[in-house]
Amino acid sequence: MSTFLFYGTLENMGADYGRRMAIMNHSDKQKRWLIDGGIMQHLGHIEVKNAQGTSLGAFKETGPIAVNTQLLPIGKSNGRLSLELTQGLWRIDAIEVVEITEAVTPMVHRVKRIVKDQRSLPQEVSLLRDDSKHLVSMPGDSRALFFEPLEEPSHIFLASKGFYLEWTRTAWNDEGNPRALRKMLLQPRQYLRDEAQVYKTYEAEMEAKFWTSRIQNPILTSHEK
Question: Residues 94, 99, 103, 104: is their CA dihedral positive or negative?
């Protein structure tokens, strides 16, 4: 749902979306509002409650598209646990109750070797090891990353940091929908209600379209046409 709302916002901005996004990116006030206020506060989080309805903790994030695992310490609790979350916002494969037995300090293993088109690229290894620099990857690029050997048995967490450039769509080159954009900014709760039916139509096809799409031959859903 968050991805649907993000692209819908860009479409509402129209041809002016580049300037508007640049303003948001350079304003700490607008960044805080986007993350903690506005439409985000109405999307909600996943909250864990005990049998008495007392909150034991909550988790929230925007995205990701990829599968990940999150751990939420809730302390000791006997009896039934329940989750409260916004319908349609999350994709959950499994919920498990586990015991945290000890604190573990992870060992960081940085990239040791990068291979692209059967060639080793030590210069790219240097880029990934330098936090002040970035490795630029283009659509269709494929690389094999090799890390230092791990001790067995090991649990592996892959961490990365970066950004991607958003490609433009034909639908964003017109005047957009200033009225819808204004409602999203000033009346986010009503905007979400208005978009609910549109999202339900999109939701029915988005999973299949996402998993079968490829960058070389993108498949557009009805929402993107």
Answer: negative
Three-state DSSP state, 84: strand
**DSSP reduced 3-state for 53:** coil
CB 191 within 8 A of CB 180: yes
Q: How many CB atoms lie within 10 A of CB 189?
A: 11
For the chain, give every domain's residue range.
2-102+173-212, 111-147
Q: What is the pLDDT of residues 139-175, one digit of tens each?
A: 788 999 999 888 777 778 777 777 766 666 776 778 8
Tokens of 108: 């960081």
pTM as predicted:
0.65
What does the block give as tokens for 7?
């692209």
Give just the sign of the alpha carbon dihedral 145, 209, 199, 181.
positive
d(CA 46, CA 85): 5
Contact 45, 58 (CB under 8 A): yes
C-alpha–C-alpha distance, residues 199 and 2, integer Å: 11
Cα torsion 108, 60, 70, 6: sign: negative
